[in-house]
Structure formats: C-alpha cells, structure tokens
Amino acid sequence: MRILFLTHNHPALQAGGTEAFAHGLFRALRDDHGAEGLFLAGTTALLREKRPGTLLQAAGTAADEMLVSLDHFDRFYLSQGDVYGLAALAPLVERLAPDVVHLHHPLLWGMEGIDWLRRAAPRAAMVATLHDYFALCPREGQLLTTEGRLCRVPAPDACRRCFPDRPGSDFTLRDLGIRSAFTAFDALLAPSEFLRGRFAAAGWDAARIGVLRNAVAASAPAPHRMAPDGRRDRFAVFGNVNRFKGTLVAMRASARLSRDGVAHGLAIHGGTAWQDDAFLDEFTTALAAAPEAGHHGAYQPDEVAARIAGADWVVVPSIWWENAPLVVLEAFRHRRPVICGGIGGMAEAVRDGVDGLHAPVGDPAGLAAVMRHAAEAPGLWDRLVAGIRPPPDFTAAAAEHLALYRSLIPERRSRRAVRHRAAAHPV
C-alpha cells in the first residue's frame, strides 16, 4: 500500500502531540506493515528558513520524510494563499500515486490544500483526523472565550465576542468554507468520543466521524521511585508551557501547598517557545512564588522515561477541553496515575478513582486540595497504579488504521468508476 501523510509540522522541529502521533503512525505503517509512501510536514520560516528554488527540504535523514515551506497561511480562515506552490507539488504526488492520503491537520495546508490533494490523487481514499477543534473555533481551536470560559458550541454571535472587529459574515464564510472542503474526505476520524460529540453539536454529521484512539511508542515503564516513608508526593507536568495548558494553575497550586506546610515537589517539564512577554512574566512570577516547583525546560521524546522516573503523579492542569492528550498515554505507559480536569477528553481518558483523580479546572485551590489528598491518602497511589491499563502502541494503531484504509480503497474506486461511466454516458 502507498500512503501519503500530511501534518502541519514535523516533530523534529516542534514536538506537538499531533505531529508526534502522525509521525509514529507513519513509521509503524512503514516498518511493521510494509507500507510505502511519503510524510510531508508543513513548515514556515519561523522554524525552518525556506531554501532558494524549492518548496521542499529534507526533514532529516529519512528519504520518505520532507518539509514543505508554506508561509502564506491565514489562520482565521485556515486558508493557504500559495496555491501555485501547492500546484508545484502535484507531480510529486502523482508519481507516488498513493492509495491513501491521510491529512492530520489543516494548519498550513489550508482548505486549498485539501482541494489540491483531491485533484492530485483522484484515485486515493482520503482520510482526515480531527486532532483538535481548529475546524470549529477560530480562536486557535481552543473553544475558550477571551475571558477564559469554556465554549461548548461555536456560533457567529458568540464568536464575535472574541473577535469584535470582525463582521458576523466572516464566521459564516469560515464555517461554510471548511465544511465544504471536508466533504472531499472519504472518512473523518476523532481520537476521542468527546471530540466527535463537539463536532456533532456544531452540526457536523456524526455518522461520518469514526473514533480511533491515539497511541504512544512501546517502551519499558520507568521504575517507580523509592519512597521509604510511603508518601507519594512528587508531581510532574509535561508538555508545552502556555496558558491553555494550565501551567500557571499548577504552580499556584504548588505555592498554596507550600503555604499550608504540605511537603511535595512539582517538576515542570516543557519549553516556553512562542509565548508572549505578558505570559512569560506571569510564569516567572508564579515560579518564584512556588518554592517547591522547578522548571526543567524542553525535552525530547526519548527523555520522558528519565524525567518521569522522579515523579509519582503526572498532573494535566489544562484549562480547556483537550481532546486526547498524549501526555496521559505517556503517563500510563510509565504506570503513573494522572491528576487532570474532569472535563472533555481528559475526563474520557482518565477514570476518576480508578487510574487517576479529577480536579476542578482552572482552580489552583481545588487542584491543591486534590494534590494534597493524593500525597496523604494511605494506599491511594498503589490502588490507582493497579488500575492503569497499558495504552495502545503504534503497532496496534497502525493495524487499526490499515484495516480502515483497506475498507475505503475499494469503495473509493467503485464510486470513481461510477462517476466515469456517468460522465461518458450523460443523460
């Protein structure tokens, strides 16, 4: 089988969850199931300078992974203005002649990229994974208002409160353009039932959206740390440091525990790239006010085991719905219970009282209370560790995706043959 994968970035340049999953899935399809193909990762000059004379660059040493310079992108409309650049890639796709095209994010590729793919690979089954809410929410797909309130269903009037300088017609045009473009796909996938439900609530056809869970690389669990006194009071946060991920909430919870004399430690693992000065000032202030918290900076995927070895608990303090956060799967891979908000994809992934604990969202005092309970409740940590189920690995995820691809290819070719016959014999 020949496959073409497209993402909005490459994990070697920016280690986001979507990029990491798409890349791991592509390699598993190639290495474990014999698929051939190409992994195209969009990029901009912020991460990799465009080289003269070409849109394409090597992503590393792998011959089947390439970067595509896609700078002319409108983040509101999810629109790629460089349609000539996209067209220049058509011969590459035509030579590959993929059986399956799988888009893992519309960022950078845009709605024009979807149309280009359908034209460049007319015989291919087309699949898109809805890894987040970008197709629904023009505010970076967060489904959060400017005041930080959770948004359940985007609507023009509500969106205008976040974008008061835009007329209501802009939101209607955005929605219509995205929905129209996504009709090109033969299958839409969601990594969680919750995300599928958000799209259904926004008027998308839920029958077209299947659920295939995310996965993480198979690896030996990091050993649990020695705790001679039986106290499990070491907490860790993993992932990009930003406001949406709730890093400030976690540090303020730690500061509250310190003021209350509760022994604990909080390790913050993640980089602060692309954050504005206002957030960085808040981050520095919050860190200084939390004596038991420490920031350990960005990390590579192969460093997770070493970093998680010092933690008893993984905290996911996100203040938005999330979808299917990979950090939860990483924590479970290393047999660490998770403390997270009791909403959205987090609550779906973490069973309260079974393999983790739910905490109030965006509430430092509420999170501190749950962390204190986690550290002090006798036998709680052992019981939750025993309840952890191993997460799926990429080999299993690749097998599920391959079965889907195989079911779509004959269907796609049959529909195309019917269209050709209809065109040849018009009524």
From TrEMBL:
Residue span, Glycosyltransferase subfamily 4-like N-terminal domain: 78-216
Protein keywords: Transferase
Keyword hit for Protein transport: no
Keyword Transferase recorded: yes
Pfam hit, one: Glyco_transf_4
Gene3D superfamilies, per the entry: Glycogen Phosphorylase B
Family annotation (PANTHER family): SULFOQUINOVOSYL TRANSFERASE SQD2, TRANSFERASE
Name recorded for this polypeptide: Glycosyl transferase
Gene: wgeD
